[in-house]
């Protein structure tokens, strides 16, 4: 059986393209991606797919512009849509990867393409495992690449397909491709893994790569059990503290990992993760910014992560009564109305007792998130905390004809 025949058998058996007709091929121009393109182009009628190509010129080599031009001309001759872009900014492997996939997603959205196909293969699985081990990745990141996974934000219709994961590079048969001379250099970690570390390990044990693949498979099986055990929390926006506390400690560890993974832009260090787990397990509420964009909140019943931009905001209006479901605070007829954040020493009178607002929050177990809600102040006297409490002074004005009423509700 030829490598192409093997490819067709796998694609047919796994039904990779049954739900996809408009396919985008990530094409670098190297042996791997050119082989993938050739096989897909040869089989496009059989698979009933239409191909487009996306190429990123990373501008890291003198020949990059020439290679882009050759690929563009080749696709024009074949009648294949060709989309390209140039990498900008300081270069790193991680930044380049994010740049590539952001570009792929944009092209797919703009041109209504539903499948992205990449040429990752068996050797990449081994290299990625070692790279992640070296960088100290968690277990969940050592399960290897999936042949098919959802791709893009907020879309279940787009897929990332890697049909070559069972192929070794020695099986690729493209005759026209570009050889990246920088692959022989060891400036980047991936090149060092490929050129130095793997050969050294395979010198000790010729089956080292095979053993790593087997270990990756076992990790994937173990993680599937963990995910099944934590399935009740998979879609939760907030994690119930009582339910969480009933789980064994080791499962709690993975439940929190899975929950944090729902926020791809949030990076949590191992030390920060362990601190969050400790906070969840101990008594007391908690509200703290864990990054520039996210806050971690633990109230009496749940813990959850929230975008800081989603902090509660209020809209307000004075009499006459506005339309809608507004709450109200009665205020004296004169005096400047100030709506502001709480300040040290602020006090409020509730049920005949005058106390610091901070003490009121603690005594009444007010949720931490609400402790930042604005105060309504007239002549340095607090008449209420929005959506928390109304002072006695406001209540005494309820039937007074000489008053003003402030109406408020959460901004929508």
Please characterize this protein's 3D structure:
- By secondary structure, this protein is α+β, with helices and mostly antiparallel strands.
- The protein folds into 3 domains: 3-215, Rossmann fold; 230-309; 314-410, no CATH class.
- The protein is built from 12 helices and 19 strands.
- The strands form 5 sheets. It has a 6-stranded mixed β-sheet with strand order 3-2-1-4-6-5, with helices on both faces. It has a 4-stranded antiparallel β-sheet with strand order 7-10-9-8.
- Helix 2 (31-47) links the parallel strand 1 and strand 2.
- Helix 5 (122-135) crosses helix 6 and helix 5 (122-135) packs across helix 7 (208-229).
- The protein starts with a helix and ends with a strand.
- The model has no long low-confidence stretch (mean pLDDT 90).
- It is found in: Cytoplasm.
């Amino acid at each position: 059986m030829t490598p192409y025949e093997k490819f067709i058998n796998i694609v047919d058996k796994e039904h990779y393209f049954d739900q996809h007709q408009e396919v985008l091929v990530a094409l670098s121009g190297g042996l791997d991606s050119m082989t993938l393109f050739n096989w897909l182009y040869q089989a496009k009628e059989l698979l009933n797919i239409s191909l487009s190509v996306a190429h990123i010129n990373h501008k890291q080599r003198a020949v990059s512009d020439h290679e882009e031009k050759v690929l563009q001309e080749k696709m024009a001759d074949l009648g294949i849509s060709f989309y390209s872009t140039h990498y900008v900014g300081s270069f790193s492997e991680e930044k380049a990867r994010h740049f590539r996939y952001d570009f792929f997603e944009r092209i797919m959205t703009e041109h209504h393409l539903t499948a992205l196909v990449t040429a990752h293969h068996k050797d990449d699985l081994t290299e990625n495992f070692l790279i992640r081990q070296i960088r100290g990745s968690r277990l969940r990141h050592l399960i290897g690449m999936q042949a098919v996974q959802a791709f893009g934000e907020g879309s279940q219709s787009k897929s990332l397909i890697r049909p070559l994961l069972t192929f070794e590079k020695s099986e690729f048969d493209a005759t026209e491709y570009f050889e990246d001379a920088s692959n022989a250099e060891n400036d980047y970690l991936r090149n060092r893994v490929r050129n130095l570390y793997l050969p050294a390990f395979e010198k000790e044990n010729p089956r080292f790569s095979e053993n790593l693949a087997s270990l990756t498979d076992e990790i994937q099986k173990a993680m599937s059990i963990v995910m099944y055990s934590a399935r009740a929390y998979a879609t939760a926006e907030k994690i119930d503290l009582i339910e969480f506390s009933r789980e064994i400690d080791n499962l709690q560890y993975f439940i929190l990992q899975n929950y944090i993974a729902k926020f791809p832009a949030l990076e949590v260090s191992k030390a920060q993760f362990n601190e969050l787990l400790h906070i969840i397990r101990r008594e007391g509420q908690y509200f703290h910014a864990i990054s520039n964009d996210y806050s971690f909140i633990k109230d009496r019943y749940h813990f959850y992560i929230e975008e800081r931009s989603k902090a509660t905001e209020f809209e307000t209006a004075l009499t006459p009564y506005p339309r809608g479901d507004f709450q109200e605070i009665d205020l004296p007829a004169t005096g400047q109305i100030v709506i502001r954040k709480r300040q040290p020493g602020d006090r409020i009178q509730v049920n005949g007792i005058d106390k610091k607002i901070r003490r009121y929050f603690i005594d009444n177990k007010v949720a931490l998130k609400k402790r930042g809600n604005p105060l309504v102040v007239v002549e340095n006297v607090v008449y209420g905390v929005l959506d928390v409490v109304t002072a006695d002074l406001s209540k005494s004005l309820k039937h007074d004809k000489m008053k003003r009423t402030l109406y408020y509700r959460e901004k929508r």
